[in-house]
Amino acid sequence: MKKIAVLLVVIFTFMGCSKHTTSFMSFNIRYDNKNDQENWWGHRKGDVVAQIKDYDPDFLGIQEGLHHQVEYLSKQLSSYQFVGKGRDDGKQKGEYSAIFYKDQKFTLLKTATFWLSTTTDTVSVGWDAALPRIATYGQFENKRSGEHIYVFNTHFDHLGKVARKKSAELILQKIKEFGLEHKKVVVMGDLNAVPGEDPIEVFRKEMYDGFSFSSFSGPKGTFNAFKKDEISDKRIDYIFTKNLEQKTYKHIDTKRPNGLWVSDHLAVYVEAFF
């Protein structure tokens, strides 16, 4: 009996210490633009949902979603809730950087959307950016363990070189302001910058880029411009982590049944121990 009791203690101790994985997906879904013709949102939206369901991330950060696109995803992804606002009015106008999360696994404790500019609390265009840009963040509690995780999702400007660097610095500044330097943090999004450029190096100094160190799979790049036969080497979409151990890092290159791309960006998928 003593041997059995010791064995049970060992088993339950091991179970208590075993690592659980949490998954994250960053996905620029491409805004609804009828000029995209065969790649128009109306033709792709079912495939976008299918890809998300196939990978079933615990957290999904989307970029470029207009309000009706976000609402569509919300209806189709019934196991998720979302947070976020439109960048043009702080309500429903303009593109979202929304965060979808599995509410059966995580409780939302706090959320906010801020503008990437010198006036973060109001609709504004920062530095040399062409458009208003935002970041949405949420503080979440793991219902199983009680641990907290902080998720930021963003989309940097496509023209403003200064704005992209300043935006990266601003997000890191927010992490410090919120007292998260020793917390579990994820920053994901379309950063419109390739490795070696300022915004990426700003993040790499403070956060972990699992592309180079985790078990990576997929093509090197994430932007395909809807070119059917292009194998992208332009990496502009990222998931950075802080105080988390990454398990896998993947660029998803699955196509629609007709051979076209699901979006003009590949989704980025990461599993981390949490």
From TrEMBL:
Gene Ontology molecular-function annotations: endonuclease activity
Keyword Hydrolase: yes
Organism superkingdom: Bacteria
Residue ranges constituting the Endonuclease/exonuclease/phosphatase domain according to the UniProt record: 25-265
Span of the signal peptide: 1-19
Stored SUPFAM superfamilies: DNase I-like (SSF56219)
Pfam short name (any one): Exo_endo_phos
Keywords for the protein's UniProt record, in alphabetical order: Endonuclease, Hydrolase, Nuclease, Signal
Protein name: Endonuclease/exonuclease/phosphatase family protein
